[in-house]
Amino acid sequence: MINKKLLPKNNKPNIYNSYDKNTNDTIQKLFIKFDEKNFFFQPTKIGYPVLWIKKKIILDVTSFLKNMSKPYSMLYDLHGVDERSRVFKKHIPNSDFSVFYHLLSIERNCDIILKVPLLNHDLKIPTITNLFKNANWYERETYEMFGIFFENHPNLTNILMPRNWKGHPLRKDYPARATELHPYYLTKEKEISEMEALSFKPEKWGMKKSKKNSDFMFLNFGPNHPSSHGAFRIILQLDGEKIVDCVPDIGYHHRGAEKMAERQTWHSYIPYTDRIEYLGGCVNEMPYILAVEKLANIVVPERVKVIRIMLSELFRINSHLLYISTFIQDIGAMSPVFFAFTDRQKIYNLIEFITGARMHPAWFRIGGVAQDLPKGWDKLLKIIIDWIPNRLKKYVDISLKNSILISRSKGIATYSKEEALSWGVTGAGLRATGINFDIRKYRPYSGYENFEFEIPIGNNISDSYSRVMLKVEEIYQSISILKQCLNNMPEGDFKANHPLTTPPIKDNVLNHIESMITHFLQVSWGPVLKNNESFQMIEATKGINSYYLISDGGTMSYRTRIRTPSFPHLQQIPSVISGSLISDLVVYLGSIDFVMSDVDR
């Protein structure tokens, strides 16, 4: 039972009125199995039940959820929160820190979030790596960012920060700006220490130096190799050309995006979202904006919804084109990359015409978009709709049907649906295993439920070739969505007439002094959002992306958790590629579709 001193009083909401039948069934089974007294329900705007439990039953509860009928087979996310500075604690148990576990059920199409309260003198909690493979990296990141120890974790070391880093960056008492730190001086001692931390010692990475009759060779693949697709290092343990084992080494691109969210206003953080996955542009703005609008109780006009979808699908096509062409390049063909940049330029012409920017428009706004569509947008969109399908056919006919490419990629780097779920794989990698799960269809947002399009899926096994071919089909579906945007663009405003729309509608600002004052305050200080928590996931270019926001009643986020698809996708690499050749690794990396900013944040 949770210690009564940890719980606020009068926690008696009717949980079952808030959720669908599948979710209510889960809650009921949990209460029967573990006794309702062991759970504390936190009301939020997340859309899924948030249940606080004591850490001593976390293994039993997660195991039960994973093995029940219609199981919660994916650990979607795991991270922490520093609760010490929260002003509004009425609806949460007494805690200094907390760890949350976001579990997802494909069969039920519903989620559940478990939270465990921790006190300063006892920051220890059991690892769940024996239940969910992908918990490994999530627990390591939570350890380094908050100083929370996961007992019996196989390798509890820093993952994004250097191994000798001091302090826990996401704690509230850790400065958010370099100007708040003491000046840094690189002394000889520090230089030696840093170089020592970078040196490679196989034992520290869980590798053996030799087998019975020969030594293994160890090879650094990256962080500057062109086929590592960014500042990404993989340490390979080789027996000749065969990969015996490997260890992905990430963090070279870490920028503290979640920490930055705690120092920026709700409005001024929008430009940062574009750069989380720098090829996705407005796609990355969508989950953040929708989560903020949930906190603000803003319902946007239909025109805004369709404009947002149109921009998102344009960026989806652009990202997929780069992915497909660089995949082909990794296998050995150069020409498609140049074709792709020609095609992507046409899309960027339209994006620039609408938003004034290209890769990072920062164009979505709380309550709408920055401006209405300019005259002539429809003509440029029609050019793209007519152009892309014919060009896409050339990629397939010239390169993707090439016998050499097929032999290099078909049956390479395979995994099943069970493996995909256990590693937290989403997007085309998951759908290639035959699982039909696209957030736009199964949890529609921003009006996707009003569009007709198909979800391409594979047949039981995900391999390098099937993953790339699904992305080709997804482009055709995006073109179908864009046609519907072109033919059915609603009339109406491009911003909601709501007090928290930021910036406010221009006509109101120019004609009413109250609106002008509001404009100044919301743009400079930021809009004030009531204390609550919200969450939004979307189908991004590389898989499921989401924002989990906590407001403490201020102008800035108390906690922003950004769950990106590329992070778990890279964690899966050793289990897929061990036993293969180095040349297969190059093909596999090209088929994942990742960028390191999406991994490291």
Annotation, overall tally of beta strands: 17
Strand order of the largest sheet: 1-2-5-4-3
Largest sheet data: 5 strands, mixed
Low-confidence stretches: 1-12
The overall pLDDT, averaged over residues, is 90
Structural class: alpha+beta
**Measured distance between first and last alpha carbons:** 37 Å
In percent, how much strand structure appears in the residues? Answer: 5-15%
**What gross morphology would you assign?**
globular
Number of helices: 21
If you compute it from the alpha carbons, what radius of gyration comes out, rounded to the nearest whole angstrom? 24 Å
Region (NADH dehydrogenase I subunit D): 215-601
Protein name: NADH-quinone oxidoreductase subunit C/D
Family: In the C-terminal section; belongs to the complex I 49 kDa subunit family.
EC number: 7.1.1.-
Task: List the keywords.
601 residues; 3-stranded antiparallel β-sheet; disordered N terminus
